[in-house]
Structure formats: structure tokens, C-alpha cells
Amino acid sequence: MTIELYVFPPSPRAFNVMAVANHLGVDHVLRMVDLRKGEQKTPQYAALNPNMRMPTLKDGDYVLWEANAITQYLAARRPESGLLPSDERARLDVVRWQFWDLAHWLPACAVFAFEYVAKPLVLGIGEPDMTEIAKGVEPFDRVATVLNGQLKGKKFVTGDTLTLADFALGSAMNLAEMAHYPIAPYGEIKRWHASLMALPAWQRTLAQAAIPTANAA
Ligand SMILES: N[C@@H](CCC(=O)N[C@@H](CS)C(=O)NCC(=O)O)C(=O)O
What we know:
This protein is an alpha+beta fold.
């Protein structure tokens, strides 16, 4: 049975699960959920994911939503990869950063991604709101300081081994330039993201995630 990943590829949350599947070489097919067309709200999709959000994984009769749960499911197919360590403390370190991603990092990045990328380029619903962007700088600095500090002296987020934490947190960084994240002071984050960009699976996923413009909708 081939795993199906329901995704809107330009979204960082979609990138997270697609990149993990690509990196692990887990057999899968992508099912497009076009958020611009409201496909997440069709009864068929809502039956899979009552949140009417993507991503969702379907493996035969088994359905799983929440991007960071999906990447854990994928990593469990390839335990030897080390993306989700078996040692309890090492595993919880990875899981801790996956929670932090959802609670703190993604919301801080989302302000910029929505105003500079989603609104004008993907959804075609207007120009960036500078008041919202100004309000987003302090929360961004707060979380970027934490991540930058964590990365000091480490190749990856939890140490010298690539894990699911890197996929989760690194996905939002793909939009850093286009979304004008105030990332300039955070050299460790930039160095770390550049190393993720060098992964073959990261490049392959970027090609799959190219942003369709609003006009092409
Ligand atoms: N906590 C969920 C969030 C999923 C989510 O918010 N997905 C957004 C795109 S990033 C979505 O599908 N939005 C469609 C909508 O709100 O209608 C996860 O991490 O998977």
C-alpha cells in the first residue's frame, strides 16, 4: 500500500512532511489539496481531516493529521535513519522542538509569510499590512533568539545528527527571504538552514513546492 500525503505543497507544513518522506525514501504519492480553491473544505476531505486543514496522511485505512505527528509516523518506517531516536531522552528532545515549532516558531514566522507571500502572491488578496508586520518583529526576535542560541556549537537543532526537529523548524525558513523575516542578526539560524538546503531531499522537495502565483489559480 502506498502512503498518500494530502498537501498544498507551498506551505511549510506540507514541506515538512514531503521532505521527510523524500529524505527517508518512503514510497508515497502526493494528493494536492488546493487551499486557493477551498479543496480542504470539500466533504470528501473533511471526512479525512475534520479540521479542514492540510497535511493529512493516509496509509490504507489509517488516517493521520498534524504535520509533526505525520513525520513521526514516517520516521517510524525507517528507524535506522535516526530522525526520531529510540533513546527516550534523545527522542523527547526532538519531540520538544516539534512542539516548540508548533507553539512558537511557526506562529512567529507565519505573520511574515502571510503578509508578504500568502496574501499578495498565493491568494491574491492584497498587499502586506505594515502594521501587522511591525507587530510581528518582537515575537519573531524572541523565538529566533532561542533557536539561534540552541544552534550555537551544534550542526543541527538537537546536536550533530539530523532529526525531525530540523525538518519541522527548517521548513518555515525556506520562506525567510521572500517573506522578509527579520533574520539578519541570527547567523546560526542562517548557517544551519544553508546546511539543510544542501540536502538532496530538501532540494527535491523545494522543486515540488514551487509557489503557484495567484494569477495561475
Ligand atoms: N497544526 C496543524 C495545522 C495545519 C494548518 O493550519 N494548515 C493550514 C495551512 S499551513 C491549512 O490547511 N489551512 C487551510 C484553512 O485554514 O482553511 C499541522 O501542523 O498540521
